[in-house]
Predict the 3D structure of the following.
Amino acid sequence: MKKDAFLPYTISVEHLGKTYKSADGQALVALKDLSFEIQDGEFICLVGPSGCGKSTLLKILGGLLKRTSGAARIGERSLDGPGPDIGFVFQAPTLLPWRTILENVLLPTEIRRLPVEQFRAKALELLAMVGLAGFENRYSSELSGGMQQRAAIVRALVQDPPVLLMDEPFGALDALTREQMNLEVLKIWSRTKKTVVFVTHSIAEAVFLADRVFVMTPRPGKIDEIINIELPRPRDLSLINTDKFGVYASRIRQLLQAKGDLS
Ligand SMILES: Nc1ncnc2c1ncn2[C@@H]1O[C@H](COP(=O)(O)OP(=O)(O)O)[C@@H](O)[C@H]1O
Ligand SMILES: [Mg+2]
C-alpha cells in the first residue's frame, strides 16, 4: 500500500449528509452526499452561498454536531465528538470578558482538566507570535477586534492540534486588518504544518490562502467543484494583483453566480 494511506490526520468524508429537524417536525436537508479527502497539512477554503451548509460541515468535522448519514473520519478516528486533535475558531472571538487574555487562551486546557501550568509557556509564546506580547493580562474590552480574534486563534492553537477549523474568522474585520490576519494565518500554517479548513465568503481570501478551494452549491450543500490554486508560496499581498490570481477569482465567481449569489 502507498505510505500516504497511513498519514495520521487525513480527513475523509464519505457520502456525508445532515438533515435538521425543526421543533414542528419539519426536515431540512442541509448537506447531501458529500465525499472528499483532505490530506495532512493542506490548506482548504470552503466557499458557497449563505445557508449552503458551510458551518454545518465545519461543525461536523469538529465533532460539534452529529451527521445524519455517511462517514467522517480524521485519521482512524470517527468524528463523533470533539477531540484534542482539532482546534476551532468561530466567527466571533467569544472571549470571556471577566478573564484576562491569557486566562481565556488557557480555558480549553482547564476544561479538559489538563495541567494548565504546562501550557502557560506555550500560550505566551503563541501570543507573542501573533503580536500580543504584553497584552496577556489585559481584558478583551481593552483589545481591538483584530487582536481579540488573534487571541481566539491562539486559544485554538495552545494544545497544538494538527487540524484547525476556522468558520469565517475574519468576517467582522475591516479590509486592512483582514489582510494582515490572512498573512498571520499563513505564517502560523507554514510554521506549524497544520491542516486548515477555512470557511469564507471572500473569494479573494479563499484564493490567497488555499491550496484548494471547495466551491459548494446552494442548499442542500454539495461540493460543486474543487479548484487547485497553483500559486507559489510563500505568498504576499502583491499576489492579489497578478493575472493568475484574477483568473482563479473569476472562475470561482462564475461558479457561484451560476448557482445564485454569494452572501
Ligand atoms: N440548528 C439548526 N436547526 C435547523 N436548521 C438549521 C440549524 N442550523 C442551520 N440550519 C439550516 O441549515 C442550513 C445550513 O446552515 P449553515 O450551515 O449555517 O449554512 P452556512 O454556514 O453555509 O451559511 C440553513 O438553511 C440553516 O437555516
Ligand atoms: Mg456559516
